[in-house]
Specification:
- With 359 residues, the protein is of the alpha+beta class.
- It has 16 helices and 11 strands.
- A 4-stranded antiparallel sheet has the order 1-2-7-4, with helices on both faces.
- α1 packs across α5 (104-122) and α14 runs antiparallel to α15.
- The protein is elongated and about 70 Å long.
Length: 359
């Protein structure tokens, strides 16, 4: 099959499997992307995420030597809409919108493998190695090269028509395909909404110090408790963060009525009652989030996050729930609760003295 025809067929198959965007890039990464990644790692901006140091990331051919082209695709998700859904009400913790969908690694891998089998029917010699963000691949630079969008000031890939609420995935393929042309424009222009809105100031234009990002703090950071300078800026986020996406004007252009694949719908609300969360056992936590990305945060991390959200809520009715965990026999949980009680702004007078004594 001719290169252009096969490229079109592959994009059509990916579209039929729920991917709204698909493009093709050369296997040779652009030097500036590799240098950016090396400087970022060298500066320690990846925090405790040591897996990001893997040198295989320098080229997709180091990961899969048979690669001759890279196909990148995007699977979108919706933003939560109501106050109850998105956890902006008093006494609620908030979960990033993507994390209320089924565990995306499994869903995307399943879709990609199905697509590969369909492509092999029309092109028997076709072979491919699928990847999601858990693979050592610099997927955002490849997506930019494939024409899916540009890397914005918040370091996320943004598509001019559809915004940034999507997962990037794709496949290294053993045939040369027709590459797409990247968008030469940086459409962020003079806008600084994402930089201005970030509570921890982890963003500068096109740079992120992930060690200060709320998503990193609630998901990847294992340390308990979290430093007060950061925890007091985490708001009510208990898993992930959507602030830099919520304020991005390009995300406001995507209609909430857009249909999603039937196997790709939210499983829970993005807002969670902190009284309920702080009443859970570890088993309750595991059960509620079964099959969801939230399970990447271990039980102690999630509880730490819920305690911080309770502290930041300034809601006195949550203090007894926090005090319960201050009596835990687990040293880390106890430390997280005492830290939250000791730093909690707006504690009512009858608890203030006791909290200071405990700490």
């Amino acid at each position: 099959m001719e290169k252009i025809e096969l490229t079109a067929k592959i994009k059509s198959v990916l579209s039929g499997n729920g991917f709204e965007l698909a493009g093709v890039a050369s296997v040779v990464p652009q030097p500036q992307h590799i240098e950016y990644w090396k400087r970022w790692i060298g500066a320690g901006h990846h925090g405790e995420m040591n897996y990001l140091e893997n040198p295989v990331r320098e080229s997709i051919q180091k990961w899969w030597p048979e690669a001759r082209s890279v196909v990148v695709a995007a699977l979108f998700y919706k933003a939560s809409s109501t106050q109850k859904e998105n956890g902006t009400g008093t006494g609620f913790g908030r979960i990033a919108d993507y994390a209320v969908y089924p565990e995306y690694h499994k869903i995307i891998q399943k879709k990609l493998k199905k697509a590969i089998k369909e492509i092999q029917i029309i092109e028997p010699g076709f072979e491919a190695q699928p990847f999601v963000d858990s693979s050592p691949v610099l997927e955002r630079p490849y997506a930019q090269m494939a024409g899916l969008g540009w890397i914005g000031k918040n370091t996320m890939l943004i598509n001019k028509r559809k915004g940034s609420r999507f997962f990037l995935a794709g496949m290294a393929v053993n045939v040369e395909l027709q590459p797409d042309q990247p968008d030469p424009m940086n459409h962020c222009g003079t806008c600084t909404r994402c930089l201005d809105a970030c509570p921890t100031r982890c963003l500068t234009p096109h740079q992120m110090d992930a060690s200060r990002c709320i998503a990193y703090l609630t998901i990847e950071k294992r340390t308990i408790p979290i430093e007060p300078e950061l925890s007091q800026k985490m708001g009510n986020w208990v898993f992930g963060c959507d602030i830099c996406q919520d304020v991005c004007p390009f995300n406001g252009k995507r209609g909430v009525e857009d249909e999603m694949p039937k196997d790709w719908e939210p499983q829970i609300s993005a807002g969670i009652d902190l009284k309920i969360a702080l009443s859970w056992t570890e088993e309750d936590y595991r059960t509620y989030f079964t099959g969801l990305p939230v399970r990447r945060a271990k039980w102690k991390q999630f509880l730490r996050n819920a305690l911080i959200a309770a502290k930041n809520s300034r809601d006195p009715s949550l203090i007894p729930y926090m005090e319960h965990w201050a009596n835990s026999e687990d040293a880390e949980i106890k430390a997280a609760a005492l830290s939250a009680l000791g730093q909690g702004p707006g504690l009512i007078a009858r608890h203030a003295g006791a909290a200071k004594t405990k700490c």
